[in-house]
C-alpha cells in the first residue's frame, strides 16, 4: 500500500468533504474551510491499493465532485474550488505549507 497526500487548497468554506478510493469512502471531514493566510484548508492522507486507483473528492453540501485516475505513483493531489467547480491536479509531493 502507498500513502497519498491530498491537499485541500482554495475555495473551501465550512464544507463537508468525502474522499473515495475506487468508489469506496476512505475519509470524510466536516467544516473544512480555507485559511486565507495559507491558501490551504487541510492536508489529509489516504492509503492507495498496490495496483491502480481512481480518487474521488466530493463536497457533499454543495453537490460538487471530481475524480482522477492515477497513473504511476503520485505523491500528492491538489484539490481546489475554482469558478464553482472542484478541480483535482497531481502534485509533486514536495508541496509544503507553513
Structure summarized in a few sentences:
The chain is an all-beta fold and 98 residues long.
Instruction: Note poorly predicted spans.
Output: none
Q: What is the alpha-carbon Rg in Å? A: 13 Å
Shape: globular
Between the first and last Cα atoms, what is the distance in angstroms? 28 Å
Quick one: how many beta strands?
A: 8
Secondary-structure content class: mainly beta
Biggest sheet character = 4 strands, mixed
Q: Approximately how much helix is present in the residues?
A: under 10%
Into which percentage range does the β-strand content fall?
Answer: over 45%
Number of helices, where a helix is a run of at least 4 consecutive DSSP H or I residues: 0
Order of helices and strands: EEEEEEEE
Task: Kindly report the average pLDDT value.
Answer: 91
The spatial strand order of the largest sheet comes to 4-1-7-8
What's the arrangement of secondary structure elements?
Elements: E1 2-8, E2 15-21, E3 24-32, E4 42-48, E5 53-59, E6 64-70, E7 76-82, E8 85-90
Overview of the molecule:
By secondary structure, this protein is mainly beta. The chain is built from no helices and eight strands. It has strands at residues 2-8, 15-21, 24-32, 42-48, 53-59, 64-70, 76-82, 85-90. It has a four-stranded mixed sheet, with no helix packed on it. Strands 3-2-5-6 form a four-stranded antiparallel sheet, with no helix packed on it. The radius of gyration is 13 Å and the shape is globular. 19% of the residues are buried.
Amino acid at each position: 500500500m502507498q500513502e497519498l497526500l491530498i491537499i485541500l487548497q482554495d475555495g473551501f468554506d465550512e464544507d463537508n468533504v468525502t474522499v473515495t478510493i475506487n468508489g469506496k469512502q476512505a475519509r470524510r471531514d466536516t467544516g473544512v474551510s480555507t485559511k486565507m493566510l495559507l491558501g490551504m484548508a487541510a492536508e489529509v492522507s489516504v492509503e492507495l491499493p498496490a495496483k491502480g486507483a481512481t480518487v474521488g473528492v466530493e463536497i457533499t453540501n454543495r453537490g460538487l465532485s471530481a475524480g482522477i485516475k492515477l497513473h504511476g505513483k503520485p505523491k500528492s493531489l491538489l484539490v481546489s474550488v475554482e469558478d464553482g467547480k472542484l478541480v483535482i491536479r497531481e502534485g509533486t509531493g514536495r508541496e509544503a505549507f507553513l
